[in-house]
Amino acid sequence: MYAATLIRQFREKGERVVLEKEAKEILEAAGIPTTRCHVVDSIAQACRTAETIGFPVVLKLSSPQLLHKSEAGGVALNLGTPQEVAAAFARLAARGREHDPAARLLLQQMAPPGVELIAGTATDPHFGTVLMLGTGGIYAELLQDAVFRLPPLGSAEVGEMITALRGYPLLNGYRGSEKADMAALQDTLLRLSELVCGNPEIRELDINPLVVYPRGVLALDARLLLQ
Fold first, then answer.
1. Is the pLDDT of residue 227 over 80?
2. 2-33+112-226 adopts what CATH topology?
3. Is 0.90 topped by the overall pTM?
């Protein structure tokens, strides 16, 4: 499995924090769809890349010193012109230098809105690896909504996790909205279960947000911590 090869390469280099770009490569190798990240080293490169992949785009700081980059002001969303990209690059590059001179800037296409979830795993001192699914986005603080299960998980257990969420109505056509793609979400959670069961080196995996659409899902941000 290519995901296992990528994880082994990180451990052989002594690296324990796998940041967004590489974490998404591991997820893609496990069959979980993500938004593709492009490392950009200059304003000119950022503008060229944005024009190639199409506006609007997102710029993010990537550094082990900034694991919660949104809270640190390390994310610029919905950039619609080269001028906006240039201004955001200059601002984020300066912020990055304050925290970590080796910080990278990542550019990716702005994903359309959907139902935002949080998915991932953690290591419990008593139970070992646990799989988590929760409501994300603007409803996260309001609902305080998360469900935990012990992998490996089958289809029935994954389906029960989804329906156990307080935010499940958001997936099921709340107030006339189009229903989310439950089959794609179930498949993603099954693949996540397989990934962590097959790679016990993963101590923690965080996908936030995992956006569910009427057709398909996308992991918009991710990171891993290895044993």
1. yes
2. D-amino Acid Aminotransferase; Chain A, domain 1 (3.30.470)
3. yes
